[in-house]
Amino acid sequence: MASQIRLKLLPSARCLFDEPIRVKVAGLKSRQVVTMRARSTDDKGVVFSSAATYRADESGEVDLNRDPSLRGSYVGIEPMGLLWSMTADTLHKRLQKTNALNPYVVKFSVHEEEGEGRMLAEATNERLLMGDGVSRVPIKEGNIRGVLFTPPGRGPFPAVLDLYTFGGGLSEKRASMLASRGFLVLTVALYGHDDLPKNVKEIHLDYLEEAVEFLKKQAKVSGKGVGVISLSKSGDLALSVASYLAGVEATVWINGCSANVALPLYYKKRQIHSALMYDVKKIIPTESGAIITKYAVNNPLAEENKGSLIPIECAKGHFLFVAAEDDLNWDSKAYLDEMVARLKHHGKENFDSVSYPGAGHYLEPPYGPYCPSSFHGVVGKPVRWGGKPKSHAAAEVHLWKKIQDFFRIHLSWDAAHTKAKL
After folding, report:
1. How far apart are CA 132 and CA 229, in angstroms?
2. How many helices (H) and strands (E) does the chain have?
3. pLDDT at res. 420
4. How many CB atoms neighbour CB 238 within 10 A?
5. What distance in Å separates the CA atoms of residue 23 and residue 212, rounded to the nearest whole number?
């Protein structure tokens, strides 16, 4: 009977967002074929869902760590496949988790394969963006608008400035998860949040310098300088922070550009970089309505664009360059290769790099739904991000550990200090 069928989430139905879980079903008939489903709703009300068909073993059990999906949102043995293969019920939507206080709730269920697909059992997975004891403090000090996340314990902790991506408003997910792993993190908005302007025509490095100095002054920060983590357009801002500002020891650049893109950059009331622009004639439309912008960005190495190129050879800290090889937003791998060659030319060895075949633009903390396309704040239209779901998901798992290891090495992090507990 259905009441005897049990859907288990192990080791616990409550975990951090970046932690894997084991999904098991018991009490089925021997060799019974069932459909496993996952469903969630993000902070904007968009519904994400996935489904995969499994065959129980002789004892009536399904174990996603052991058994292959026969068909559905993915095939083969994919223990976390129901999470990363979820797709939105509306075109061009990306999972929005804007406030770290709200957990990411996923409903898992098992259904009969035949007929109406009657539900046999269900379980709820509460995936927390903040570990127990992590503090979240909104910051409105001087020009800074953001949120500060501090791990539990006395510290000192390595400090990280999270620029996330260049979009209106504020994203807390990555910052809160890094704090849950022992980093003191400030995530800042560049525009469109609180009393910041809705749109900007230029960027001022002074704002980011103020954020770096704010981080350094925090009582629980270790004294070795700060780290910076970025994604997309904020990648070039992170390069500028590392190249021009003091006390930046470690910079993670994810799928950015090697030049200052879209908006001129100012520092101390003068322009230090012109803006590398797009050629709209090179934008490729697709049937879905999302465009491909990969080939539209002008060449930063062309003589007329040299004023946008960021002098990373002047940086004193270390870099981790990360590129997705199937990035359709722009050619991140080409920018990575150019920066590596430039640093080597200057006799520099202060960098590590990694690139991921089959991964797309939005490399985020693992186990969220893969996003094929969504609205692009700078372009003003939906954009294809590239990548294949399975390869992209694997890249996110690998990268998330690499980022933490990189910061721990270069920000002199003591692993004995804290490990956030639920």
Report:
1. 23
2. 6, 25
3. 45
4. 26
5. 42
- What does each C-alpha distance from 132 to 11, 14, 96, 135, 219 come to in angstroms? 17, 12, 22, 9, 20
Q: Name the catalytic one among 67, 162, 326, 327.
A: 327
Band of residue 196 on the pLDDT scale cut at 50, 70, 90: confident
Strand partners, 410: none
The residues with which 8 forms a beta bridge, in sequence order, are 24
Please check whether the domain covering 2-128 is classified as CATH 1.10.472.20.
Answer: no
Angstrom CA distances, 251 to 156, 231, 398, stand at: 20, 11, 18
Does the annotation mark 327 as catalytic?
Answer: yes
Q: Answer yes or no: 73 catalytic.
A: no
Closest CA to 412 of 265, 249, 233: 249
SS3 assignment, position 340: helix
pLDDT band of 416, cuts 50, 70, 90? very low
Task: Tell me which residue has tokens 């100012």.
Answer: 266
Q: Is 410 a catalytic residue?
A: no
Rounded Cα distance, 75 and 53, in Å: 9
How far CA 394 is from CA of 20, 77, 134, 391, 398, in Å, comes to 12, 13, 27, 5, 6
Residue 313: CB atoms within 10 A of its CB come to 14
What is the structure's pLDDT at 412? 72
Catalytic one of 232, 243, 258, 374: 232
Q: What is the DSSP string of 145-206?
A: EEEEEE-SSS--EEEEEEEE-S-SS---HHHHHHHHTT-EEEEE-SSSSTTS-SS-S-EEHH
Query: Is CATH 3.40.50.720 what the domain over 135-410 is classified as, yes or no?
Result: no
pLDDT of residue 211: 97
Task: Report pLDDT digits (tens) over 338-384.
Answer: 999 999 999 999 999 999 999 999 999 999 999 999 998 778 899 99
Look up residue 156 and give its two tokens: 């000192």
- Choose among 150, 267, 138, 272: nearest CA to 210: 267
Q: Is the pLDDT of residue 222 over 90?
A: no
pLDDT at residue 104, rounded to an integer: 96
Q: Does 2-128 match 135-410 in CATH topology? A: no
pLDDT at position 34 is 98
**Every domain of the chain and the residues it spans:** 2-128, 135-410
Catalytic-labelled residue, pool 92, 361, 376, 392 = 361
